[in-house]
Design brief:
single chain; Protein Transport Mog1p, Chain A; eight-stranded antiparallel beta sheet; globular; disordered N terminus; DUF4136 domain-containing protein
Length: 196
């Protein structure tokens, strides 16, 4: 079951189509969200299952088809084994590395053991459109309010288009800053919106 959930999360963000009109805020997160000096607006949301709710945010002038930055909240209303979730994410990226020479993955555990950061590079050279390098930082966090347990995977993607080598070098130089930004980001309170 957990493996199926993480396969859903590994699907490329390209497969999601920006919703038309108003997008329902399933997680009751006040927006826009300020992240690393940029405002992000809710652009897509979907209940992926009875226990997984997912929302994506883009800067106001960007589209999902050719974004340069994206925030993703994947919120589970049940307890998830964090080490297993992290391992499955890393294994999925390592599998991709067999066919993508730019793919690299790293894992860092917080000093208190309550959070993990997984960061990685991937590249894509589609038949139509521009080639790109994408750098992702995933933050895995457990919640326990005494009566219920939940789990959040917050991720930030930064993408550069064009020459893959120079884009990879440029993103590699930004890596420390992007990881620090994710670690220091104050996660807003999340509450699944009541269903109508």
């Amino acid at each position: 079951m957990v493996k199926k959930i993480f396969l859903l999360l590994f699907i490329s963000t390209l497969s999601f189509v920006k919703a038309q009109g108003s997008v329902p805020d399933l997680l009751s997160i006040p927006g826009p969200i300020e992240y690393d000096g940029t405002e992000y607006f809710l652009s897509w949301s979907k209940p992926m299952s009875k226990t997984l709710y997912r929302q994506q945010y883009l800067p106001s002038d960007e589209r999902i088809e050719d974004f340069t930055q994206l925030l993703d909240f994947s919120y589970f209303t049940k307890e998830i084994e964090m080490e297993l979730a992290v391992r499955q994410k890393v294994e999925g990226i390592q599998q991709r590395a067999k066919s993508d020479k730019f793919t690299k993955v790293n894992v860092v555990e917080s000093p208190d053991g309550k959070e993990y950061i997984v960061d990685y590079f991937i590249s894509e050279s589609p038949e139509k459109g521009s080639s790109f390098i994408e750098y992702n930082v995933y933050r895995f966090k457990k919640y326990d309010n005494g009566t219920s347990k939940s789990f959040l995977i917050l991720s930030h993607a930064k993408r550069m288009y064009g020459d893959l080598k120079s884009a990879a070098k440029s993103l590699a130089r930004q890596r420390d800053h992007l990881i620090t930004t994710m670690i220091e980001f104050k996660i807003p309170e999340i509450k699944v919106a009541a269903k109508n």
